[in-house]
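Researcher: If convenient, please comment on what follows.
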Amino acid sequence: MSLKKIFKTLALTAFFTLSGQQVSAQDLIARQAPVDKKMKAVDTLTFQQLLDREYSGLPAEDLYADWENKYAHRATQLPNEYKIDLRDFCMPTPSRVVTSNFGSRWGKQHKGLDIKVYVGDTIRSAFSGMVRMVKYEARGYGKYIVIRHDNGLETIYGHLSKQLVRENQRVKAGDVIGLGGNTGRSTGSHLHFETRLCGVALNPAVLFDFRAQDVTGDFYVYRKSTYNRDAAEATRLRGVQGNGSYNPADVNSTATAANRNAGSKKSAAPTRKVHKVKSGETLYRIATKYGVSVEKLRQLNGLKKNANIRAGQLIRYS
């Protein structure tokens, strides 16, 4: 073979080899593009699954159809019965002084409890959840915060001097969310505290005992059929005695009894004594424990002869 033919053969071989590599490289890029898109889709799906896993199974997901920050509360259909988990809780404030009850006040409905706090006092989230609103309302709540909790409740904290969280922020029970104040429609520094289910205001006293700095039980079962009675009883046991309006004498006497003279036999608090029902307890067992009759327990608590008691319920025995 002549030198010319050998050179030509080598040149053609090199050309076809390089062409083949280019085609292979282009094919590889063409094949890789869909793979990249699929990987991005998988990453997005995985991230969404993580989010769904974090919030799935929470009662709030079943109770509320949407998530918005336009309305502090908007009533929707309440279930006939709903079990609220109170175990993961923190008292919003260490103050034990209730200055105004839930219910009728000055001819209007007061939708929460007023708790005596001072400007700058620490306010904490009652349960774990997500901050839905951080707003200001000059003729109402003043500076306020709304949190939707994992147990299905929403809580509102009004008249704050400062808000320390942002909307859509995840908070845990006990996290500091704001400072006490006197903003909005308020006649003195205090915390206006609301508990709502499906936007409907529930008496916080059926859930929280500010004087005892505790919740009323591990769970509270909301029932349409018994709620009004529960709310009235809660106010009787844990609210301000009298008309429920702000009275400096109530604040001074309660604060003195709860905070300054804790060791004294004298107390401005009611002398009623109550027992928190444990699982499996009966009226007979409670009556035997405190040396009273079952009939006496029924009279003190307005219970009918065949009435059932439930775990977490407070039973007055004196």
Observations:
- The first strand starts at residue 81 and ends at 85.
- Confidence is low (pLDDT under 50) at residues 243-271.
